[in-house]
Amino acid sequence: MNRHVDPRQALPQPDGIATGEVLLDVRNVSLRFGGVKAITDISFDIRKGEIRAIIGPNGAGKTSMLNVINGFYTPQEGSIVFRGKERKKIAPYEAAASGIARTFQNVALFKGMSTLDNIMAGRTLAMHRNFFWQLIYYGPALREEIANRRKVEEIIDFLEIQHIRKVPVGRLPYGLQKRVELGRALAAEPALLLLDEPMAGMNLEEKEDMSRFILDVNSQFGTTIALIEHDMGVVMDISDRVVVLDYGRKIGDGTPEEVKSSQEVIDAYLGVSH
Amino acid sequence: MLAKAEAGDTLDTFPKYLVLNAKRFASRPAMRHKDLGIWQGWTWKQQLDEVRSFAVGLSAVGLERGDKVAVVGSNRPRLYWSFAAIQSLGGIPVPVYADSVAEEMAYVLDHAEVRFAVVEDQEQVDKLLSISEKVPSLKDIVYDEARGLRDYDHTHLHSFEEVQAKGRAAIEASEETVARWQAAVDLGRGTDLGVMLYTSGTTGRPKGVMLSNDNLVKSALHGNAFDRLGPDENIIAYLPLAWVGDHVFSYTQSYTAGFCVSCPESPETVTEDRREIAPTYFFAPPRVFEGLLTAMMVRMEDAGRLKKRMFDHYLALARRVGEKILNGERVPLLDRMRYFLGEILVYGPLKNRMGMTRLRVAYTAGEAIGPELFRFYRSIGLNLKQLYGQTEACVYITAQPDGNIRADTVGIPSPGVEIKIAENGEVLYRSEGTFIGYYKNEEATRATKTPDGWVHTGDAGFIDGEGHLKIIDRAKDVGKLQNGELFAPKYVENTLKFFPDIKEVVAFGDGRAFCAAFINIDLQSVGSWAERHNVSYASYQDLAGHPDVYGIIASHVEAANRKLSEEPMMAASQIRRFLVLHKELDADDGELTRTQKVRRSFIAERYGDLIEALYDGSTQKYVETEMTFEDGRKGSVRATVRIVDAKVFGSAAAPVREAAE
């Protein structure tokens, strides 16, 4: 393949942060639940436009880390800088409004609603007309609905899920539900997309599809992506940089090659005799 | 309805038709495509604009008269437009199956010496780039869907939009551009090569069938006239672009008749999209009809009792009178009224579900359709017909005319087609649609097409009393009995396999005195009979050898013989002796192919003793056969197989019977 230029270089930078600059900076974060230390003094950054993987054995604190980033947990120590703004405490809805969207380890969709409605739900933040306007469903409210629907249809087209547009998501196979969830997160047009095990429980073909979608989201929309994943093959293939956690501590950080050759990481994964 | 007076206009190339249609059907729809959940439409005038600007752009990229251009992808407007654009410049489109593997595609593209390719998306671009070394002639690739392609090297890669923009700019810059394009269109001749379609070919390399513009235009016009297709038709394009059927239905007939072609949103949404479009003219291989029916029956199983009873009641009525009403035969008034009620309550909603509410003409072809399936669709009032065609004939060889339909024939010769049956039973045809030849394959052309224009179909058949063609077998499988009568094993076998108790049949007779058969019972069907009649059995072999089972099979063979005796060509092929095999024919033992087709020569070798026993008059034979079990172990079965005489009908019976003894 003739990949000779990095397309992200050419993208416009609406938020004043250039590609390659730090979008999110995690500084010395520690998180405790009572006496249990979930995360201990972790620092890493996510650069704009990259695919950043967070890996580690079970219970390493990966999902907790994501929850800290999108404001679901508030760390006892440390701080997070997102788009140059430092914050100590943030509510999940504020995080969403500031441009962070996520998917969940266990699919969290509205099972009784159609694919279309689920993804439309992801546009909530882009709907500015109030409830009464929407009741009237005319003029500005209608125009807004149409504009948002268009955006959603583009996402449906992008993720190749036209055939399930009107199917209640509860009836869909798991792999497709995961795709719908990704669609809903994309609908928020996030600056940072957090994916919690996007490929868990998928077969090889579904994993390949999902990998392609993640890469395409990244290159097409320039979305920065942080993902947790267990499949090492996938992680090494698609991510630009990897953070490795173990027992709540950071034990590795760097490109896939660097991480792969780090003794500490190998020990954590394969186990060592002490 | 519109422009009837001008319908007589005949031109010789499709770009010329496009220009004409842009005048006569200017604001009527030519193309639709569902995109972002909404049907987007183009009128003939807009279609002309799209095609022309793309063509001008293509010539700027370097397309020249005589260049071959591969077109790869699913049914999308831009790919259909590229056909006309390429032809308008004197190029030759070569549609290629989008799902063919890289290796196969490399062969076709290299053989066709394509210089350009117009493809759908990244997947196809990747495939072409991966084989670019094997296709030295290929220079530039144009893609429709830009997604994922942004960071590719674009020196020889162009997006459809960009090429079109180039064309539009040139048209705006100078008025001469359009005139020049029109001059290029006018240069096109009917005798020019119009399109090259590669036949998938079950054996050997695919062959490039060269069809001239005359071939395509004239067959399309004949087809239009035969089914009275006009600008008001509506079709959905969903079959592979590289298949001659799609090329004729979605491109050549659309351009000549001026009707609108709708492209589905994605291959997975075809059923839903068809429902929205409700085509008036529809073509599908039997499996599509089968799939639709199965899906519906499954839903009906879940329906409430009232609905289910209503459904069953009216379907029974439809079976009784539906086809007669469709054929315009006499039906009592009361039944007509009942049928009308059924139309409102059941048939109408059913047709709506399947997207066939407005269906006027539907064709099935490609393989034989089950008679039950065929009758079901006809009985609910759908004008489903059979067609027999080939790439080499621009589809049409024979087709069933409205109101003269039978489940077991493929109809009468299409307008402008002559048919004859060769000495060995092979069907030959000659028409204006007959192909020029195979590209760069003189030998194959000579083997298929005679100097005076007759084309060998490779199928054996005969013309029945009413002039309908009946296909019986592949010509190479057809043999002769000792008395010189034609012997078509597949036809005999299919006649027997019609009975649910019979799973597989192998008929023998080539070079023999009479026809005899091996029969495999259907364990499920015969097993349920055994259960109902308290017949206990331990294994397939046990059941197959049961005297009562032999009785049942004998009655089926008798019924089949009666049917065969009614066909003058087949009467000699009645089964005089048969046996029920002691083991099921199995692909694991090499007796069947993986697609469940009988491997005749292998069986003849393996069961040589049994075949001899069929012909030497013995009434039983002891055999030992090796077989493979499901877990891969090998074992052998021993059995004494009984051989039974069957009753035959008609005059030809007696002398041969003596010869056997």
UniProtKB/TrEMBL annotation, chain A:
It holds the Pfam family ABC_tran. Keywords: ATP-binding, Nucleotide-binding, Transport. CDD domains: ABC_Mj1267_LivG_branched. GO terms for cellular component: plasma membrane. InterPro entries: AAA+_ATPase, ABC_AA/LPS_Transport, ABC_transporter-like_ATP-bd, BCA_ABC_TP_C, P-loop_NTPase. SMART domains: AAA. Residues 24-272 form the ABC transporter domain. GO terms for molecular function: ATP binding; ATP hydrolysis activity. This is ABC transporter ATP-binding protein. It comes from Aquibium carbonis.
From TrEMBL, chain B:
It comes from the Bacteria. It holds the Pfam family AMP-binding. InterPro entries: AMP-binding_CS, AMP-dep_synth/lig_dom, ANL_N_sf. GO terms for molecular function: long-chain fatty acid-CoA ligase activity. Keywords: Fatty acid metabolism, Ligase, Lipid metabolism. Gene3D superfamilies: N-terminal domain of ligase-like. The keyword Thylakoid does not apply. GO terms for cellular component: membrane. Residues 21-439 form the AMP-dependent synthetase/ligase domain. This is Long-chain fatty acid--CoA ligase.
